[in-house]
Amino acid sequence: MKIFIDTAPFIYLVENHPVFAKKMKTLITDAIVNGEEIITNVVTISEYGVKPTRENRPDLIKKFEELLARLNVEVLIIDQSAARKAYELRAKYQFLKGMDAFQLALSINEKCHRFITNDKRLKKISEISIDTMDDL
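Now predict its structure.
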């Protein structure tokens, strides 16, 4: 089974959020114990790097990249199939933004059984099981 992790949960883990970091550690530990794959995509990388770059914090970017490598996170790329699924999702869910649509499209195309985020609006998506940090 596969779990897709959106950008914010990785931020909470890397930056040691006082509440959510522990929840992410538990989620990841359980996933490893249960033999589940952890997946994200290039959108997560592009979103993650913005704040550390603005704040001149290459240490956070390095920590994030090391985390992905250590956990053997599969980083998907956006292809035509994902682009098609993204526009179908955006047509169906008018509130959906482009980057979120790519995240969801790739997770659906990869047949992930869970999508971990902290964007509560995404709970309206019916094509995949969405868990926010409050659900963990």
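Helices lie at 7-14, 20-33, 42-48, 50-54, 58-70, 80-92, 98-109.
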